Amino acid sequence: MIRKQKADDKKQWFLYSANLRTKTLVIIAISIIFIVSIFVSGYFIRDIPSSFVNANQMPSLEHLFGTDWMGRDMFQRTVAGLGLSIMVGFIASAVSTCISIILGLFSSFNKFADEFVAGIIDLFGSIPHILLIILVSIMFGGGVYGVIMGVGLTHWTPLARVLRSEVKEIRTKEYIHLAENLGRSKIWIATKHILPLIISQIIVGVILMFPHAIMHEAAITFLGFGLPPHEPAIGVILSESMNYLSSGYWWLAFYPGMSLLIVVLLFDLIGENVEKLLNPETAQE
Amino acid sequence: MNKQKLAKYFGFKFLRFIILIIAVAIFSFVLLDLSPIDPVNAYLNGAAVSQAQRQILEQYFGTSVPLQTKIYHWLLDLIQGDLGTSLIFRAPVRDVIIQKFMASVVLMAISWILSGILGFVLGVLAGKNKGSWIDKAVKVYCYAIQSAPSFWVGMLVLMVFSVYLGWFPIGFGVPIGVKSTDATFMEWAARLVLPTLTLSLVGLAPIAMYTRNELIQVLSSDYVLFAKSRGEKGWDLVKNHGIRNILLPAITLQFLSFSELFGGAVMVEQVFSYPGIGQTAVAAGLQNDVPLFLGIVVISAIFVFVGNLLADISYYLIDPRIKESEFND
Known about the structure:
The complex is a heterodimer of chains A (about 280) and B (about 325). Chain A is mainly alpha-helical.
């Protein structure tokens, strides 16, 4: 009797009859649905009504995250800001991924190309990331465009480094030499023989790039580069709430930051679980 | 023989350093040159001038000089240590950077040491008691803090300690109305506490996670099993077999974090209005002060490089195995 009780305790309450693969898929699906719903609702929130009667209210059932100095609902502003952050994250990751794939494949051409790629990675890694983003966003003239390019053009280094070392290993394989001896071009080898092998690294790298891009977007807008003050970006909301810290309006800063943290954690969760699925060592558990 | 190898090693490092700094200098210069910032407008800052005066200024800033010549002059001046004149401080960039960097170095150094020690201790505690509540608490904390923007952590710290408890002033390097040179040590120190605390809280997460994972790996190894069978247990076991093995990579990791430390300082200084290099960089970027921003980029690149170099040296000094392999190539 007691023994049976113990066995029951070990079973998890959540989907306990499913295997690990299904559970992982469910976790991924739930996280994705959550993020997509934030993104979609953020897109539809356009005009947030302001009412000065309700200014600076504490969080309540009516206003989950409280209201700001113009009486705007902070929950709506936060969701809109997160939607914007996710969009910037999407574009930035797409740009970064393209760069790292191109550089990774380019490094397979010959030794000089490899050294060249290593040099660029070193160059980008030698400037503190936040300064680099500011530098690139200034170059593109600031604004939303500047922020997207600044975040997008600087996040490829970790993925490119991974891809380069993978490519280095693949290049020593026999079938690559064989293809070379058969007279195939470097580009043919790179796209047909190397790219398919690094696809899983790319997918995981992209998903793990997301949270960084979102956090850096928030940081850069917090510092005042890029998005104009009326846009409800998370960084803008937080830098605005800096003015009200001393008045004790803690909800203005606490909840938006907390929601950003949750979104970032969700992306991390998706990334880790996808990696689990794609990695052949853990996929069959 | 060994000395010769050492000299060769550092000569190689120095050469790399020179190439890297030149590359950073050219790269950042070209980026800012491509930007739509007009030096004349940035200098005038909206003041109305006649066409003739404008032309004089354009000639002074060399707006029509080709890019190669500009890069050449910039590098030449850089080698002589002349970084130009800051537009917002109206002072030589070098002096501004030295003054601001000193304030930041104090902040970064204290929080670097604090986060290293705290992170290592927490990591060891968590790794030794794997699966206990300490381990879980450390893990949750590290995950959360690594996903939280550092400036938001700073704001929370500010809210708790300055606004609610009222223990510390809300910002600025020195009290209002006091010159920074006149401020007493205590006034400086009181304003240093919260930024340092924030930077340490953020910085200890990676080192704690790393130490924890490494310690767990070491403790599950064969030689630890053997040591256990010999009768070693508890703290002695961890000290003799765990810490000796993980201290070196942990120190190296901490040296490699100079880049994140600098980035964290930029955000934290902004939140606490601490007059350091980070706040100056943001001001320079926002107000199009190109010479100052370029100077800060170059200085920060040197800073990061020094961190990486120290990581290499610490490897060499502490681990005898590296001496064998690294210098035999």
